[in-house]
Amino acid sequence: MSKSKEFFQNLIKPFKFNSGKDRQNGDDLQKIAQQEQKHFPFEILVAATNNFHHHQKLGEGGFGPVYKGKLDDGREIAVKKLSHSSNQGKREFENEARLLARVQHRNVVNILGYCVHGQEKLLVYEFVTNESLDKLLFKSNRKSELDWKRRHEIISGVARGLLYLHEDSHNRIIHRDIKAGNILIDDKWIPKIADFGMARLFPEDQTHVNTRVAGTNGYMAPEYVMNGRLSAKADVFSFGVVVLELISGQKNSSFNLDVNAQGLLDWAYKLYKKGKILEFMDPALASSAVPEQVAACIQIGLLCTQGDPQLRPDMRRVVILLSKRPGSLEEPTRPGVPGTRYRRSRRPPGFSSSAGTSGLSDSHSSGSTFNTNTASASASTSALASPLRSDPHGKRPVQS
Ligand SMILES: Nc1ncnc2c1ncn2[C@@H]1O[C@H](COP(=O)(O)OP(=O)(O)OP(=O)(O)O)[C@@H](O)[C@H]1O
Question: What's the rounded Cα separation, in Å, for the pair 265 and 262?
C-alpha cells in the first residue's frame, strides 16, 4: 500500500465499519465507556450551570437545591447540590453515587454521574423536560393535558419503574418517598421516578435508623410512620396514593371533598363499597376515560393502600394486575391512614423546646389524613422525644 493510501485508510478507520455487527460493537463500547465516565469535574458543572446562577435554579427540595445546566456536548442536565447534612465521607459517597448511576430504566431518572468538591457533593441527572406530576396535576393549568390514556400510561410506567428498583436493579432499592412530586414527566409523557437512592446517600446513625430520611405527608405507609418498619410494601402504599390522586385529581394531604370521609383513601373505599366507584374519577376525565380501566385502577390503588402491608400486592403483582382484565381483582380491605413523620437534624444553637413542639400540630399535619395517635406513636418509637421544628421546605417536619 502506498504511503498516502495508508495514511488515508488510517484517517477513515474510526468511521469505517465492515458490518452492522462491528458498528454495534463500536456503539456498545462507546456506551460502556460513557457509562463508566461517572465523575464530573467541578469546573464542568460550574460552566454548565453558569456558576450555579439563581436563574438556573429549578427548585430546592429536602436534600438541597437543583440547577439546570447544559454540557458542552449539548446534553441538558439537572445538578443537585446535596445539603451538608449528608455526613457521608468522600469515598463512601463516591461508591454509592457510582452504584446509583448504574440504575438505568426508562421509568427512572438516570443519574449521569457525581462530583465532590471540598465539602460539596453533587449529583448529575439527565434533565427531564416536562413538569413534575404534582405540578401538572395540582398546580398548573395543564391538567387538561392529562387525559385518561396519559394518566393510565403514567400509572403503568411508575409501576414498572418501581418494580425495577425493588427487584431488578443490581441492588434492591426502596425509594421511601414515592409521591407525585417525585415523578417527573418527559417530553413524550413518559414518567420517570426521581430522588431514588437518597436513603443510601443520607445514611442513618446507629441509634436513629429510619428517622432522618422521611417520606412526605399523605404518602407514608402507616407501619413506617408508627414503628419505622420499612419494606418495599411501604413504597407500594405510596404508589397506591399516587394512583388514587392521579385518578381523582385530588391531593391526598389537602383532601376536603367529603366531610364524611377521613381522607382521599377513605373516600375511595367508601365509594367502592357503595358500588359508586366511578364517582371518584376526576370530572376532567369524563370524555377520555375507559370506565372499566378506571374502575380497575382505583381498585388496584385501594389494594396497594390497604392498612395491612402483608395484604398489599408487591410491585410485580401490581404490574400484572394493571395488565389484567378488570373483574378478576381481589377485594381490597380498609385503607391504612397515611401519617406524618419527623426526621432528625442537628439542633440549632439556642433552640427552645416549646418552639419546636408546635411542629407536631402545625400545617404539616397532612390535612384530614393526619392521625394524632400516629404522631405520638411515632414520637415514642423513633426516639422523637426531643423537640421538633419545621422543615424549611414545608414538607418534612424535622426533629431537632
Ligand atoms: N432530573 C431533573 N430534571 C428536571 N427537573 C428536575 C430534575 N430533578 C429535579 N428537578 C426539579 O427540581 C426541583 C427540586 O427537586 P427536588 O427533587 O430536589 O425537590 P422536590 O421534589 O421539590 O422536594 P423533595 O425533596 O421534598 O422531594 C423540582 O422542581 C424538580 O421538579
Answer: 8
Q: Please say whether the dihedral angle defined by the alpha carbons of residues 80, 84, 85 and 87, taken in this order, is positive or negative.
A: positive
CATH, range 133-379: 1.10.510.10
**Nearest residue to 339 via CA among 312, 306, 378:** 378
190-218: average pLDDT? 67
Q: Kindly give the number of the ligand 1 atom that is closest to the alpha carbon of 60.
A: 14
Residues with CB under 6 A from ligand 1: 58-59, 61-63, 66, 78, 80, 109, 125, 127-128, 132, 181-182, 184, 194-195, 216, 395
307: helix, coil or strand?
coil
CATH architecture, range 12-126? 2-Layer Sandwich (3.30)
pTM, 2 dp? 0.77
pLDDT in tens, 67-83: 999 999 999 999 999 88
Mean pLDDT for 22-48 is 71
What is the set of active-site residues? 177
Spell out the domain ranges in the chain: 12-126, 133-379
Could you tell me if the ipTM is greater than 0.90?
Answer: yes
Ligand 1 centroid–CA 377 distance in Å is 31
